């Protein structure tokens, strides 16, 4: 299970959509290079990143995990938003629990919501993928 911080790095790498170095990731995340490198090593150990020359890129497993986190985030956020919670608050809360919540629970919430295609930000909710 990824920590919240490691999950945020993974999503950032997914968003950047190109191989990264500790330097580029550190700049994007606004952290020091050693901090970025430490997380890269952690993600590599989990099999989410692989080294390609001097750069690191997402593996299929890493991409799958990023999509899973995005899906969890957007479904949780939609649920919270629907209850009347502020979108920014719903988003912040979803960020905290997106990596911790069981997929099966997210699926139930998705069904309950009528399987929305977009989150309240208007961003697409990725479909569930089997591993
Ligand atoms: Zn959000």
Identify the CATH homologous superfamily of the largest domain: Winged helix-like DNA-binding domain superfamily/Winged helix DNA-binding domain
Radius of gyration, in Å, reads 15 Å
* Count of domains: 2
CATH level 1 name of the largest domain: Mainly Alpha
**Low-pLDDT residue intervals, each spanning 5 or more residues:** none
Cα separation of the termini: 15 Å
What molecules are bound to this protein?
zinc ion
What does this entry look like structurally?
- With 131 residues, the chain is mainly alpha-helical.
- The protein folds into 2 domains: 4-58, Orthogonal Bundle (Arc Repressor Mutant, subunit A); 64-112, no CATH class.
- The protein is built from 6 helices and 2 strands.
- It has a two-stranded antiparallel sheet with strand order 1-2.
- It is elongated.
- The two termini are 15 Å apart.
- The mean pLDDT is 94.
- The structure holds zinc ion (ZN).
- Zinc ion is lined by residues 73, 77, 91, 94, 121.
Task: Give a quick precis of the structure.
Helices cover 60% and strands 6% of the residues. With 131 residues, the chain is mainly alpha-helical.
């Amino acid at each position: 299970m990824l920590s919240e911080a490691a999950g945020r790095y993974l999503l950032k790498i997914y968003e950047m959509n190109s191989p990264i170095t500790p330097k580029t990731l550190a700049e994007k995340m606004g952290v020091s290079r050693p901090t970025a490198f430490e997380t890269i090593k952690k993600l590599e150990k989990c099999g989410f990143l692989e080294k390609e020359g001097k750069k690191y890129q997402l593996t299929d497993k890493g991409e799958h995990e990023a999509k899973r986190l995005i899906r969890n985030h957007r479904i949780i956020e939609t649920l919270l938003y629907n209850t009347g919670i502020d979108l920014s608050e719903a988003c912040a809360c979803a960020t905290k629990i997106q990596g911790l919540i069981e997929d099966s629970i997210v699926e139930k919430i998705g069904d309950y919501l009528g399987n929305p295609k977009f989150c309240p930000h208007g961003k697409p909710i990725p479909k569930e993928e089997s591993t």
